[in-house]
Amino acid sequence: MIDLPDYYFRIRENGAMVFRVDTENRQRRIEMDQIAVVNIRNGEVKPHGDRTLSETDIATIRNWMEERRKVLSFRDLDDIHRAIDHLNLTAQWAQSRATDEQLENVTDALLLAMHDLRCVLVRKKADRLTKSRQEAGEAE
Question: Organism's domain of life (predicted)?
């Protein structure tokens, strides 16, 4: 017999649908009973239908939400590191293999995207430096 978890979380765009897993029935089938919908962004847990969630349900859901936020945060940063790699590969491609036609196709979009990114990064860096200086001034 497979040892299944008591809960299953079907991932959605902003969270998950939560199911209670039941294998203790007469047909020995796996049954999944939806008990809630959760929203990672705002922390909302909505019981499904007229259900009342137990303390165990709520604790399990909150724990899953915390772990899911950690996974998503890691993925966000990993995606940015991959974007840096892609920018480097794009520079190498543009320098060594791209045809004039290919460059014409992508140059304006790349320049605008890089300009936008640079503006955001410079502004955020300046904000952090200003904040750091203000905090250092308050500490003195």
Answer: Bacteria
Residue type, 4: L
Kindly calculate the radius of gyration of the chain based on its CA atoms and give it in whole angstroms.
24
- The Cα–Cα gap between 73 and 41 comes to 12
In a domain, 128, yes or no: no
Our count of domains for the chain comes to 1
Task: List 96's β-bridge partners, or say none.
Answer: none
Domain membership of residue 130 (yes or no) is no
Residue 58 in domain:
yes
Q: Is the model's pLDDT at 74 over the cut of 60?
A: yes
Full residue range of the structural domain in which residue 71 is found: 1-76
Indicate the pTM of the whole model: 0.73
Q: Say if CB 4 and CB 30 are below 8 A apart.
A: yes
Residue 45: both structure tokens together: 């847990």
> Is residue 12 domain-resident?
yes
For 129, other C-beta atoms within 10 Å of its C-beta total 10
